Amino acid sequence: MTANLSRLLNALGLVAIDTVLVLAFADQLWFRDLPCPLCILQRVGFIAAGFGIALNLMFGPRPSHYGLAILGAVAGGVVSARQILLNIAHNSAYGNAVFGLHLYTWALLLFALIVVGSAIMLQFEQQFAATDVLPSRLKVLPVLAVALLATLALGNVISTLAICGAGLCPDNPAGYMIFNDNLSLTLLGKTP
Amino acid sequence: MMSLPFLLFACGLAAAWTRQRGAAMGFWVAGVLVLLALFRFHATDVLNLGL
Known about the structure:
The structure holds 2 protein chains of 2 kinds. By secondary structure, chain A is mainly alpha-helical. Chain A has 6 helices and 2 strands. In chain A, helix 2 packs antiparallel against helix 3. In chain A, strands 1-2 form a two-stranded antiparallel sheet. Chain A is about 70% helix and about 0% strand. In chain B, helix 1 packs antiparallel against helix 2 (about 20-40). Classes of the chains: A mainly alpha, B mainly alpha. The interface of A and B includes residues 41, 75, 78, 89 and 146 of A.
């Protein structure tokens, strides 16, 4: 596998992660399905995994970058597994189901896919050789994918502040805490 | 508090954008540590699972 093909596959992988985060926002804003604390931490896991792939795109593919993607996916997967087991133990569910599975179950499957995909990519050592001059089509997509990941990270800063204020999130968020009357207290992490 | 890991990863991506790989990886480590600490705060119930 050449460095250029690796770069294209990494860009497509990051676009897939960006899409997951965009769909999570769509579910939150369109269907008013507010994310629970564990759901928010799974978003963090996707960004942590995407971060490793983004480094591949910006500095060239390296085993350490794939390592970051795998570790980020494992951290997110642990959170997903915890939420699945929690709902099994309580015989309950949180949020909307998509094609019969809840979002945290889809998240666990996607985290596993990121681990497997990164492990497969690590088998192609030729990509780690010195990079050739990149064709322009291989510059646009990676830059857009990384820029979108950064935008989604900042969007989640705002969204999480709006839902939880500056403290820990409630287990079952009922609304945007930032719209409370005592806005200053909320931002200080104190529930009015 | 819960928005902190997102902020750290955004700072890390900004560092990567300015070609500071070491700083970017430092922000990644900080972000994951905060993620794990927040998970610890939210995973307090013992799960009654008969595995």
